[in-house]
Amino acid sequence: MAHAIEVNEDGKARFAYSGHQRPWHLLGTPMEGLQTADAMLAAAGADFTVRLARVAAMDDEGNILFNPDGSPVVVEDSRATIRDNGDGSYDALSTVGNRYVVQQNREVLERALAVVGASKGDAVVDTVGVLHDGKRFFASLDLGNLIIDPTGINDKIHSNLLVYTGHDGRTPITYSNTNVRAVCENTVRMGLSQARSTFKAKHTPNVESVLDDAQRVLRISTEWADSFKATAEQMLSIQIVPGSGKVDRILETIMPKKEADTDRKQGNRSDTIDTIKAIWENPRNAGFAGHNGWTFYNAVVEYLDHYRDATPEARALTSMEETSWVTRKKIETQAAVFAVV
């Protein structure tokens, strides 16, 4: 399955999520809001213990091979990772090298909490899941809402710390700043590909000292958040009256009128402007936070992301690409708002 989430024999998926948004695959245990690591690991069945074991040779019938002295034939340069189910049963996960060091799912998640400055008892975990029959583990932490609140309007921007690791000898411990919510393998990969910054550490004997450097991930995120907050607050302070010259100047900058435009192009431009103005007045923008640079900027962004003439897939892709014309247009809009002060 594309989601790769482990499903037990009783049909229960090893996945839990904050119930505010049901995942596309409709699997897992919904929780009441964000939860602690303890609660989410338990709900997802992800708090199991992974152990290292020696690798013994077996014949085609499944019988262990023994040397003449009665000792088993052991593969000396390899180890196996196995899941201890706590009931006397085990699941084989993978073979790994001799230098491989097990980091339990709980340890990796708790390290992520430390990276974002949260304690074990803080309810910040949004999703937790087990992939590929226990071989891999992921979680998503809600980094909190960035509140842009100079006047008490509480405009919120969401961001996540993606946690990803494996017990297969190939998947490093990974922390990524991303706006993608991890609910399956596909979204984990998307989150990694769209991440603002990513930290990786191999499962080697020096993993603990290497993980100490993971704090830089949060510093990068915080610096970006602080910068964005300052920019948004500046735009909030720019008052823009509907129908004023400021509106015309911004629109002329981002959608310049060209004498050579056909009547059809001029008509399309006029329709686009009318749509942006209507979005500006809706309850999410000026209808909620007033007529200012921030709400006008958001109206243009909303138009580019959701209303312009394109398929939903094309709109989504160009909105995510840092070098796309849509991204450039958003930057131009921000500059145009500041220019009308």
Task: Describe this entry's structure for a reader.
This protein is an alpha+beta fold. The protein has two domains: 15-214, no CATH class; 238-339, no CATH class. Helices cover 37% and strands 21% of the residues. It has helices at residues 37-44, 105-115, 185-193, 207-211, 215-236, 245-254, 263-280, 286-289, 293-307, 312-320, 325-339, and strands at 15-18, 29-31, 49-56, 74-84, 90-96, 125-131, 136-142, 146-148, 155-157, 160-166, 173-178, 197-201. The strands form three sheets. Strands 2-1-6-7-10-11-12 form a seven-stranded mixed beta sheet, with helices on both faces. It has a three-stranded antiparallel beta sheet with strand order 3-4-5, with no helix packed on it. Helix 5 (215-236) packs across helix 9, helix 6 (245-254) packs antiparallel against helix 11 and helix 7 (263-280) crosses helix 9 (293-307). The protein is elongated and about 95 Å long. The model is unreliable at 145-158 (pLDDT under 50).
Essential attributes:
alpha+beta; 2 domains; 21% strand; three-stranded antiparallel sheet; single chain; 341 residues; seven-stranded mixed sheet; 12 strands
How would you briefly describe this protein structure?
The protein is of the alpha+beta class and 341 residues long.
Rounded radius of gyration (Å): 26 Å
Largest sheet, if any?
Answer: 7 strands, mixed
Report the total helices. Answer: 11
Sum up the overall morphology in one term: elongated
Number of strands: 12
Which bin fits the share of residues in helices?
25-40%
Structure classification: alpha+beta
Beta-strand percent range: 15-25%
Mean pLDDT: 86
Distance between the termini: 53 Å
What are the secondary-structure elements, in order, as H or E?
Answer: EEHEEEHEEEEEEHEHHHHHHHH
Poorly predicted segments: 145-158
Summed up, the domain count is: 2
Instruction: Give, in spatial order, the strands making up the sheet with the most strands.
Output: 2-1-6-7-10-11-12
